Input
Amino acid sequence: MKFALVAAIVVSAVMAYFAVENSQQTQVTFLGWYFDAPLVIILLLSFGSGVIATFLATLPGAMRKSREISKLKAQVTADAEKISALEKELERNAAQIKEPNDVILL
Output
């Protein structure tokens, strides 16, 4: 917890310093559009679009894994119920056999 707080403070300080150092105006041209904005805003928008693109690229794999985990959890639950039922049946059968002589061999 303390490490995360210290890391957040350090990253915030670095970002604030970065913003102060890169506050000059920059013209951006993209697909025939152009606009002026501070360099730090352009860089943060570029970084943010990269984060979003990465998230969208990894989303299908994460969804597939989530579905597989849900399926496996359901299978484990069903198998646990089967094991429990078999254990109860075994206990019931063991209670019916009172002595080894009562067993009939075929």
